[in-house]
Specification:
single chain; alpha+beta; Aminopeptidase; two-stranded antiparallel sheet; 20% strand
Length: 295
């Protein structure tokens, strides 16, 4: 393999490959997992929350092995894929008493981040039962919220890592490919927003919740993942929704998706085009998203 490689934005030089070869030779009994951990430590290759970039590192090692640049030890075990084996969330019998009236009569609301809590199964089940897209297990960084009034759940919101490539968003920010690779983790994507069906005639509730979330998401993200969020984004399918609550909460329409999806091999749309909406959380968001080191 001649020249320099790049993997997930990191340059991999001939010297780096030589270092990996020496690492493998120094630990002949090590598993692929152990080699990945050692390489992450040697290169100080960490996620923003301090955890090793183990899966990225293992992907690099596998790519180099397949290219013939290194020789990894044989695979010792085949772990189960937890996503492939995951069962659909179990149904629940919710408190579905009708909720109606002006917002002032529904307040106060509690907004609870429930990922890694005893209430996470309830969130999953409500999404599975009542959202038209059903529940989908997020990959990467993500948060889940239950919104309650007087102890009764009335809404659910989910946030996850942002898509890496999104033309209209990227043009709105004005960053280059390197800045995007470096700072994409500073954007959160609103993947699900569900007002439960027993909420009836509650004007301005949805936009109120989006406004509350805008003040809370970055703080919660920093607590769990050790970095802030500077921009929120979401998609709205105009064949189903107008995005009124987002617009009322000061979100900005910046364009449309291409309709191709991240795994498409064609230039032709294969799904509906969706509106792309964003909400800056900092007045200097462009500067922060284009800086040399994500903070």
């Amino acid at each position: 393999m001649a020249g320099e490689w790049r993997y997930r934005g990191r340059p991999i030089s001939v010297g780096d490959i030589g270092f990996i070869q020496k690492l493998i030779a120094a630990y002949p009994q090590a598993s692929r997992y152990e080699l990945s951990q050692r390489l992450c430590a040697a290169w100080n290759w960490k996620q923003p929350n301090g955890a090793p970039r183990d899966m990225v590192c293992r992907g690099l090692l596998l790519s180099l092995d397949r290219a013939g640049a290194i020789e990894l030890p044989a695979v010792r075990r085949h772990p189960r894929n937890p996503l492939a084996d995951r069962r659909r969330p179990e149904p629940v019998i919710p408190d579905n008493r009708p909720v109606r009236g002006p917002l002032r009569e529904i307040l106060p609301l509690s907004i609870e981040q429930v990922r890694r809590s005893e209430q996470e199964p309830l969130f999953n089940s409500l999404m599975e039962q009542y959202h038209y897209l059903r529940y989908e297990q997020p990959v990467g960084e993500h948060l889940k919220y239950l919104i309650k009034t007087r102890g009764q759940v009335i809404a659910c919101l989910a946030w996850s890592s942002a898509p890496r490539h999104l033309g209209s968003r990227d043009r709105f920010i004005g960053w280059d490919a390197e800045a995007r690779r470096r700072n994409i983790h500073l954007i959160a994507y609103n993947t699900r927003f569900l007002i439960l069906p027993w909420v009836q005639q509650a004007p301005h509730l949805a936009s109120h919740l989006l406004g509350r979330m805008a003040r809370q998401v970055s703080r919660d993200w920093r607590q769990i993942y050790a970095h802030p969020i500077h921009l929120l984004e979401t998609f709205v399918d105009p064949e189903r929704f107008a995005g009124t609550c987002y617009r009322a909460a000061n979100w900005i329409v910046v364009g449309k998706t291409t309709g191709r999806g991240k795994d498409s091999n064609s230039d032709q749309p294969n799904r509906s085009l969706k509106l792309v909406l964003v909400l800056p959380l900092h007045r200097r968001f462009r500067e922060l998203l284009s800086q040399q080191v994500g903070k």
